[in-house]
# Entry
Amino acid sequence: MTTTPLRPATAAGAVGTAHPRVEGLEKVTGAARYAAEFPLPGLAHGWLVVSRVARGRIRSVETGPVLAMPGVLAVLHHGNAPRLRTDYERQFGAHDQTAAVFQHDRVPHAGWPVALVVAETPEQAREAAESLTVTYEEEPHDIALTADRPEARTVDDYLPGVTEKGDLEAELAASAAVVDAEYTTPEEHHAMMEPHAATARWEDGRLDLLDSNQGTTWVQSELAGLFALDPADIRVRSEHIGGGFGSKGLRAHQVAAAMAARVLDRPVRVVLTRRQMFSLTGHRSPTVQRVRLGADAGGRLRALEHRTLNHTSTVHEFLELASIPGRVLYDADAHRTASELVPLDVPSPTWMRAPGEAPGSFALESALDELAEKLGIDPIELRLRNDPERGPVSGLPFAGRNLAACFREGARRFGWAGRDPRPGVRREGRWLLGTGTAAASFGAGAGPSTASLTAEPDGTFTVRIAAADIGTGARTALTLVAADALEVTPDRVRVRIGDSAFGPAMIAGGSTGTRSWSWAVMAAARELRERLAAAPDIPADGLTVRADTTEALGTLSQKERHSFGAQFAEVAVDPATGEVRVRRMLGIFAAGRIVNPLTARSQLVGGMTWGLSMALHEEAVRDPAFGGLYGGDLAGYHIASHADVPAIEADWVDDPDPEDPVGIKGIGEIGIVGAAAAVANAVWHATGVRHRHLPIRPDRVIAAGAVDA
Amino acid sequence: MREFGYRRADDVTGAVALLDADPGARYLGGGTNLVDLMKTGVERPARLVDIRRLPLDGIELTDDGGLRIGATVTNSDLAAHPEVRRRCPALSQAVLAGASGQLRNMATVGGNLLQRTRCGYFADVTKPCNKREPGSGCPAIEGEHRNHAILGASEHCVAVHPSDMAVALSAFDAVVSYQTADGPGELPLADLYLPVSDTPHRETALPRGALITAVTLPAAPVAARSRYRKVRERASYAFAIGSVAAALEVHDGVVRDVRLAFGAVASRPWRAHAAERALVGSPADAEHFAAAADAELAAARPLPDNAYKVTLMRNLVVAVLTDLAQEAAR
# Structure
């Protein structure tokens, strides 16, 4: 028995002070093991074979010659693979057969998994997989996303697909200035550093999975559904993750590995190649968007319409809710937002880097800039004049809306005052210079989570929570939150994450992770402190309490809860060569309580870098003739290189919400929102030409030219 | 990736003999392109003959003031060499504009010349490609060709050569030395790459089994005032969508000597002879630079999505030559 002294409540808090990653040393020394790195006796290796055709049926899989190759153990395909259930209820999102591999002979898109070759070594598996002959009955495919698809339809997701009020045509007709424009964004991919990888083994009917994912209990629940198991009979671990960005949920490789491990009764690992990732791990759909804005001469919005269309696959209905920024940012007498989808012969899209807001804010915030130009009103002033007091669609009050403070602080630091609004008049050698701005918002939600907290006899504390640190610094943030809640220094707190055995918890997604998990950790700490106050003696095996936030979440008052931000960019454009260089970016955010300024700044700068990359570089080109990607690898799919990324500054304003028990809003996604629009608006300011189609490539800039100022 | 044999060559004669004896063998330099292509199945050599240890890694001044560059000199060493920077800055700039630091540390001069196109259809074995599989077709013409050729292409292939270095070498009349089992040989760089015609799979005029041993840049005083400018879809680590190697000598406002080569417009580095001819003796001003570019680009046959390259190359020529003329005037 020992007694643990708690620090007095007056001690300085860890939250809000810069703290390096708690697992940083492990990561930089290589001691941290990622999903594909665990040595296991008897491990076999699976290699996926994917479809060359974009639509059709599998006629035959010629397994004979491949089974005779050295080291080959099995070839799984639709003719021999274990059957899966696909009608189970999902934790997130609509009915989805994307990961239900080898269940039928239908090929829904190029790059669809048609077989898994398992062998003793990865090299043998790969060679055999590349030798496997699969024949198809090919059917004509359709991958063209255009604004006029008659079969486009909306669906309700976690939010409604359509919201509307007022008479749009009447308000547009009565407006002093109107913007009506089409914007497009291309297919984009997550392109995280660590490829998807999973190792599966079965023992006594229980499945054990070493994985790289954004939620161990989420993947556990999906696998339980597919394999008709009790979730308690599945353990999923994912401690270190080299990036996720929305892509690391349940995918073909985990399912294929689990199937093969069961069939062979030995551990099986499946690692995706970069090329496979471009068809098997989701992407952001291209969008076609139309924005109509109408305002009176003073800039007050009378009409706002934002319509968006995305593609989805024929095996999953995924709606890219790109019309949602206007539901939060701006009110108007007539207000309509509508997102629609059209199923095509393409891989399933998924959540990616601020789903909805990232592409949607490009269109809406570009249109606001166009409206400011038409009205002769400063773009920041126009936004401030339309800063609503209540949710434009919900009518609910905001739980903190500090967008105006972000713009004021941002304008001051960026040097916005005195900006010459005329486009195409600043020249420096071969470069035309311009500046642009845009608003940002992202929802601040939370999901039910459980955590356990143990007071150890040695005076330390252990948090166990099925959180996922996908590179964000979440584990470090939770360490600081727990330390403050326990009123001890962070070095006395150990946080264990990434294990479904720790109980249900929210995924690392939707910018909700740290907010959701912190809530559970704080609740557990409160309970533990009460227990220790009543009986300070700690048993030899420690004193453990558990917390579950499900009920507490329900008591939160109904409000509009969002992070906000103001984005600024300065660009240089050479109209002769089409080169666009971003010279500096500044983002000022209102995102609740910032737990760890060190990793928070890193996340925000990372998000803004995504935005730069989205504005200028990222584009997956789908080949009309073949239906697959042209150059589907990191040589063909350009993300911003270091040389493209200038000094990027991110900071925040105070954004307290006394009503909120955690006060954390989440910063995973707000950094990208509006960033592409700020760059595009700056390109207009530099050249006098609007670029409504991303990315702003050299060929597009050359074709568009510049106004002769 | 298929299994393959590996031999390290000790001397040039031995390397050439190994290749001569084995039709499935290929030379391995830095491997920065060949190994990638082996992973994707585009290249399937039965054996690699590693030439990295051959004594071909020196850069020497020739008797007449030119530069003889060994075939296994790394791209990094080439770009950093003081004589290269002094005598032909465009060559150093071109090399530094390519790839990444890590790749340049591995990549060799010989390998750089012989690297394969980055056309996405060539790189994808599930697609037709006349260069990879003669007679299978060229999907780029109807498909994705934003970064394909506008000059010297054919209905059989519109791929571009990816090298920056070769563009600079081409502007200054480099000569390629090689060795075969029958003895040494030489080829002007201008003749190294074959016309596309209906045989895009035949890329060079090197005899079978030839090992490039050196590249020689003849002395050219004009090269000391040379420049390489590359435009690409991001600021670094991307292949050119258009590039220019240029040198200019101006006296009394009149062009005395000029060298001009284009990159990313053809299946080989494109020496702009027509533009050079148009410029010599003409005033060194933007108007005449543009006219010279037009003279060269009159032969351009762009496809629907790469017509921008004609404008880009014209603008680049004017911009680079104007810069050089202003520098000369200072």
